[in-house]
Amino acid sequence: MTFLVPFDGSYLAEAALKRASEYGDALDEDVTALSVIPDDEAYATSVGWYEPGESEPFSVAYVAKRLREGVDDIAPGATFREEAIDDGTPAAIAARITDVADEIRPSVVFLGTDNVGEIAQPVTSVAGGVAANATYDVHIVRYYAPPEISEIPLETGAYQES
Questions:
Q1: Could you give the number of structural domains in the chain?
Q2: 127 pLDDT band (50/70/90 cuts)?
Q3: Helix (H) / strand (E) containing 80
Q4: pLDDT tens-digit map of 4-62
Q5: What are the φ/ψ torsions at residue 37 (nearest 5 degrees)?
Q6: What is the mean pLDDT of residues 62-73?
Q7: 152 within a domain of the structure (yes/no)
Q8: d(Cα 44, Cα 11) in Å, to the nearest integer?
Q9: Is 6 inside a domain boundary?
């Protein structure tokens, strides 16, 4: 099985990758980070992937290299996959993520998003378009660190309130 993480370098995408990596280590599952990169300098600039005047001219390969470095920092054991597209709309990005998911058939897709309330509106949300696919489970990550869970005392195999 594989855990798939759409990765755009955002704070919550980093959190989703971190969480998937932790689950992957615990469950001995592979993790694939997927970056869908529109071939559009203006888009790359607007999301912080590229700044005009950088030492290298804009290219999908340059952006992919930077995103791969982010993945390697967070989850060194993860596989990195990039997909170039022409259209940078959320629907187009979600469609490519779904296509890749259909190809690799992950058991869980980890989505870093704070737009959970808008997830039913796939036109405005990449997460919504990906979550709409019923062929895999979706783990939504809204915070970088998971909530603290106190230790559950076990006596005779049953939960006991303390």
A1: 1
A2: low
A3: strand 79-85
A4: 999 999 999 999 999 999 999 999 999 999 999 999 999 999 999 999 888 899 999 99
A5: -120, 110
A6: 97
A7: no
A8: 16
A9: no
What is the predicted pLDDT for the residue at 23? 92
Interacting residues of 32 by C-beta distance below 8 A, sequence separation 6+: 2, 3, 4, 5, 78, 79, 80, 81, 104, 106
Instruction: Please indicate, yes or no, if residue 30 is contained in any of the structural domains.
Output: yes
Residues 69-87: pLDDT tens digits? 999 999 999 999 999 999 9
In the structure encoding, which two tokens stand for residue 158, read together? 């049953």
Neighbours of 37 (CB within 10 A): 24
Task: Tally the residues of the chain.
Answer: 162
**Domain containing residue 56:** 18-143
CATH number of the domain residue 28 falls in: 3.40.50.620
CA dihedral 90, 119, 137, 93 (to 10 degrees): 0
Residue type, 129: G
Record the tokens describing residue 49, joined without a space. 């992937």
Q: Is the distance from CB of 104 to CB of 32 less than 8 angstroms?
A: yes
The residue-averaged pLDDT of 90-95 equals 88
In this structure, what token pair is assigned to residue 17?
């990758």
Q: Is residue 47 one of the residues assigned to a domain?
A: yes
